[in-house]
From TrEMBL:
This is ABC-type quaternary amine transporter. The gene is btuD_29. Keywords: ATP-binding, Nucleotide-binding, Transport. Belongs to the ABC transporter superfamily. Residues 14-251 form the ABC transporter domain.
Length: 353
């Protein structure tokens, strides 16, 4: 498999073609004819109810499960026929409850795949140090600990470090943050987004939490039973225009509020220039509109200052500017979703012609 390094993207495209799995003894397939193209460097979230076959799809990509039919291409290479052990060294895999080996130290866990593929000792040591730092764990402190001496969130970080250690172009993550409390989960999600901005791997991330999906995904594929695709689109498009009742049920209540998590204050056109009036709360320009709403609602004067990286004041948001911005944003989402639906209906018609 060639490593792809263009425009800072280190990930490789993944294509699933008519991928199907029927387990021995089952009459119905667990995964029934799924086809999907994932762009290099994309973070794709697969979301769907329990039993919809998400984990089975993931495990077919790294051949922990052999497909009954169909094929998988990674960077245009058909990997359905190649040696699964070799393949797995090119695909990082992080799972719920971290999957760390309990009898190995943190460093030994992270070093596993680099050692297996024959890196020399110095390179492995340097890599372990780099990975620990990357996931926010002080190497000196955590190097020799065993997994049981870490918190759940720290174990997940080590799990991610281990999955990334051999610098694979593809990273598969199966509910990696499922077992930690909501606050740790949010910080691990932020951490993953930060890492991904730097690394630009192709990531397939499985969850059954739609909020997690919209927070993380460049695109989301919503699966119904037997991994049939209910909708495959950007978080914005799915929130603005769920394809059917099944997807609406998944999106849940409060789509407009969820949308606030997807926009940063710096992207607001309507931030007023600072006018010298005293403002209590302040917000980083990286804050989400949801953070901005929280700040405005809890500020006695109903206003919050937006500050730049050095603390300089860039502008002020208040309820009126937020309302206007959110209105415009939802309107733009609706138009984009309608346009998109029209385009896909047209291409289906052309395909059928
Ligand atoms: N080894 C197996 N043998 C037989 N059936 C299996 C096997 N593994 C999974 N299945 C079945 O395949 C279906 C899909 O399972 P899978 O674990 O892929 O779902 P999932 O969407 O990941 O679910 P969850 O969110 O609960 O983890 C289920 O009905 C499950 O019972």
């Amino acid at each position: 498999m060639p490593d792809v390094h263009t425009d800072g993207v280190s990930g490789a495209a993944i294509t699933l073609e008519h991928l199907t799995k029927t387990f021995p003894g089952s009459t119905l397939p667990a995964v029934d004819d799924i086809s999907l193209h994932i762009e290099p460097g994309e973070l794709l979230v697969m979301v769907g109810p329990s039993g919809s076959g998400k984990s089975t799809v993931l495990k077919m990509i790294n051949r922990l499960i052999e497909p009954t039919a169909g094929r998988i291409l990674i960077a245009d290479e058909d990997v359905t026929g190649i040696d699964p052990v070799g393949l797995r060294r090119k695909i990082g895999y992080a799972i719920q409850s971290s999957g760390l080996f309990p009898h190995m130290t943190v460093a030994q866990n992270i070093a596993l795949v680099p050692k297996m593929i024959g890196w020399d000792k110095e390179r492995v040591t340097a890599r372990v140090e780099e990975m620990l730092t990357l996931v926010g764990l002080e190497p000196g402190e955590y190097w020799k600990r065993f997994p049981r001496q870490l918190s759940g969130g720290q174990q997940q970080r080590v799990g991610v470090a281990r999955a990334l250690a051999a610098d694979p172009p593809v990273l598969l993550m199966d509910e990696p943050f499922g077992a930690v409390d909501p606050i740790t989960r949010a910080s691990l999600q932020d951490e993953l987004l930060r890492l991904q901005r730097e690394l630009r791997k192709t990531i397939v991330f499985v969850t059954h939490d739609f909020d997690e999906a919209i927070r993380l995904g460049d695109r989301i594929v919503v699966l119904r039973e037997r991994s049939r695709i209910a909708q495959f689109d950007t978080p914005q498009a799915i929130l603005a225009s769920p394809a059917d009742d099944f997807v609406s049920g998944f999106v849940g209540a409060g789509a407009a509020l969820k949308r606030l998590n997807l926009t940063r204050v710096r992207d607001l056109a309507g931030v007023q220039a600072a006018n010298g009036a005293p403002v209590g709360r302040s917000l980083a320009e990286d804050a989400t509109l949801r953070d901005a709403l929280e700040a405005v609602l809890t500020d006695p004067a109903g206003r919050a200052a937006v500050t730049g990286p050095d603390g300089e004041r860039l502008g002020v948001v208040d309820m009126a500017s937020l309302t206007a911005a959110v209105h415009d944003m939802l309107q733009a989402d609706r138009l984009a979703a309608e346009e998109h639906l029209r385009e896909s209906a047209e291409s289906r018609r052309e395909g059928a012609a």
